ATP-binding cassette, subfamily C, bacterial LapB (Endozoicomonas montiporae CL-33), 704 residues
Amino acid sequence: MDSIKDPLLHSLLEICKHHYISTHSHSLTSGLALNKGKLSAESIPKAAEKAGLKGAIRNQSLSEVNTLALPALLLLNDGSSCVLKQIDSKTATIHTISGTANISLPTLSEQYSGTVIYFKPNQNQEGLSATTKPTQHHWLLSPLKQAIPIYSEVLLASLFINLFALGTPLFVMNVYDRVLANHAFETLWVLAIGMGLLIAFDLTLKLLRSWFLDQAGHRIDLQLSSTVFSSLLNQRQQSLKIGSSASYLHEFEGFRQFLTSTTITTLIDLPFIFLFLALIGWIAGPLVWIPVTVIPVAILVSFLLQYSLKKHVDLMMQEGSRKQIMVYETLACMSEIKIHNAQSVLQRKWEQLAEQCGHHGLKVRKITQTALSVTQSIQQIAYVFLIVGGVYLVTAGELTMGGLIACSILSGRALAPATQITGLLMRLHQSRSALNGIKQIVNAPKESDIKNTIAPAFIKGDIALQQVSFSWPEQPPVLDNISLSIRQGEKIGILGPMGCGKSTLLSLIAGLTCPTHGRMLIDGIASEQLHPAQWREQLGFYTQDSRLLYGNIKDNITIGQPETTDEELLKVARLTGVTRFCAQHPEGFSRSVGEGGFDLSGGQRQAVALARALLKNPPILLLDEPTSAMDLSEENRFMRELTTLIQDKTLILVTHRPGLLKLVDRLIVLDQGKLVADGPKNDVIKQLNQRTRSTTTNNAEEIA
């Protein structure tokens, strides 16, 4: 990304420079939601956080700007920005894309939009002991803390709602004890009007509370979903489990609903049980001991069932995740399933999963229904005892008829939250299980952090692998002790039998996977010290399993370069042959590729993916079987076009097509993960031919 075309990014880079932070435009914007390839004002704090800066957006006039917090970023009326370095009563020193200049205060005031962004470094963690290092913002607690002001409004509304709930029993008590006894109809209407107003206020507060809960849940959901998806995009390739991650994201929907459901309302209303009990005690004295005794019993019943409930909720969520993974794999491999007539096998597995998931679901429903039925029965028993005890108090003249009815209403309100505890705990278990899945994404190994990287102004592109090995967990090495150097501008072919590690080697060079042993150097710098986004800006990488995303052909080609001009698009489209099949379709480049690109043929998908890899005209090309779906004439045409394109570029080519070796000058041969040959093309070919003749002779002697 060119910071000259993005004034906000240019200003942020200048701020980083002031704080002695070495960074790069792609490092700052990697993983952010950009608007036409440019930063928005709202995304600046997120970009700054990547560089170890904390950004705070304020709406202030120039006279209110905190001079002690300079430099600061000013947003201008034309959508651009500048860095305010100094300001006095008459002039200001600002930095823009054009450079640093002094400007009069009236002129700056006309351009200034009224929004300033201050920055300060996060506490440096270098050199701090383990006991003094600051903690990172927790991915869950941080958005919850930001929603505290809204939840405080919810608590305030809940306080008044529960206070208003006292109105109905007090209204009933006064009607029975005073209005009926004295035929005081005027008092009746005064009380009725008062209750009408109370009900109106109660309705208003309930609607407001619901709105506040929705707003809080919406804010938390936006921040959490952004954090979780950003973590997903930043995962290391070898730790990424596609089906499991998709299942975890699906489970996150359950936690999102928890944030806005009646569960929160129930939690908030629980403490107000004591308010209703206090009023019962004030009206009826000893009758309060009936709900005081019954409520702990109802709660105890719920907690006694929690072990079994938690067990089956966890198992139900696990089986549900397995079902989600199976659905994903089935849809992704539908052709293979049908070709090999595996539908019956998959159907059987699905029915087994559905049966297991349904079994645990039935157990969960049985437990919750049992707990609900028992607590409701306890509530009814409490009501009966309350009436019986109340009759004795009324007979003794210690309680009025209105007081007894009021206490029965209050008892129901006090017991209601207690009867909902089982359902509340079930939703808590489901949310906890969903959060555990999300933790798998958030806490998975990530690619390099910008705060631990350096940002050279220029990358030449010399690559060195030093005793590099790579293996998947609990698997034998895919690459074993590979050492080689690749100079800028070299044209290299990589040969070897299937499974020898050719594609893995390209993946390591691209930074998609990390060596399990050894290291990779780029221009003499350890690859871990370069931000992956800056390194990949130098690469055009085509893989054998390159996939397309839902959208049209143009979107798929320009997915990493949204600011691409039509001329640049047409150039790579002609080179890869995309223009030919686009010209035969009425929608051209706007033609939809379908899910996964399966509305296109295999050759067409390959052409689009190749165009995407070549679009940014990168200095280093990594091509893994780029002509596997092409016929001979298409391959020859592609070779002619590519020969001109790669004259001043580094080419690393994996292929089984002998014709493509015309593009390279050096060959690297791998076998069983080991480097068996490396040198000039002709020398390596002679070496391979001699080895082949020797193997053939030995085989012939064995047969003889």
Observations:
- The two ends are 66 Å apart (CA to CA).
